[in-house]
Amino acid sequence: MQKKSKTKIRPLQKQKKPGLEAKLSPLPESEPIQQNGKLTGKTAIITGGDSGIGKATALLFAAEGADIVISYLSETSDAKETKKEIEKLGRKCILIKGDLGRENNCKKVITETVKTFGKLDILVNNAGIHWESEKIEDISTEQLMKTFHSNFFSVFWLTKYAMKYLKKGSCIINTTSVTAYRGSDHLMDYAATKGAILSFTRSLAANLAQKGIRLNAVAPGPIWTPLIASTLSNKAVSEFGSDTPMKRAGEPNEVATCFLFLASEDSSYMTGQVLHPNGGEIVNG
Question: What is the pLDDT of residues 84-112, one digit of tens each?
């Protein structure tokens, strides 16, 4: 593969329209960046990696050559099954159980990763929780704080403690949500955390750009995961995803490909951006 040009200012050159590529100096890089083994030799942390979007992302990353650290809350049986599937793909995997709404547990995930694998290349902040609420009066301060601790503070803490080990070429990918863009009348506190993640992603991406560390996000729409079945009403579950232009909920493996793109060199010229696997909803973001 041709190395990327380090030239910041191209030499003065003039051509007749539409121009000839062969006369450009330096020549543009057109060959595929990498066709397979996109994450070979990488170590990735995936929070909430025991099931749903996190599991699908973990399996895809492993299939592309990465060793995986799965952080999960309490679903040990799911986590063990995911680990088994990763190991069948020939990659190493460790499980770290704990509530990421607590700062010490976030620090532990980072330190255990580096202790086991000696490095950290990719951080996927994916874990999250939500509850339905019909009106704001139904959201207790306890619920509000738990939602923010689990969904947003964990992203901040994990990223903060990872910075010591992330180097040029490393990347961070945050899971925000379609609700960060258009809100949700029954997931108000959840949508607020996802909005915070979106602003944090854009702000820190600009801060880290000169260090060569990329930070992007994925904003899923309705995706069929255990969180949906365990938190939404029976009616909401039965209709889940039917209001999208594609008239269905998405599958976790339809979102995992977004994370792979952002984790690999395929997205080497992207930072501070968001991908939208949401069934066709236009969100202007």
Answer: 999 999 999 999 999 999 999 999 999 99
Q: What is the pLDDT of residue 22?
A: 79
Residue ranges making up the domain that contains 176? 37-222+252-275
Q: CATH code at 190?
A: 3.40.50.720
| pLDDT one-digit tens code per residue, 241-251 | 778 888 888 88
| pLDDT tens digit sequence for 251-278 | 888 999 999 999 999 999 999 999 999 9
**DSSP output for the chain:** -PPPP--SSPPP----TT--GGG-SSPP--S-S-SS-TTTT-EEEEETTTSHHHHHHHHHHHHTT-EEEEEESS-HHHHHHHHHHHHHTT--EEEEE--TTSHHHHHHHHHHHHHHHS---EEEE--------SSGGG--HHHHHHHHIIIIIHHHHHHHHHTTT--TT-EEEEE--THHHH--TT-HHHHHHHHHHHHHHHHHHHHHGGGT-EEEEE---SB--HHHHHHS-HHHHHTTTTTSTTSSPBPHHHHHHHHHHHHSGGGTT--S-EE--SSS-----
Report the catalytic residues: 190
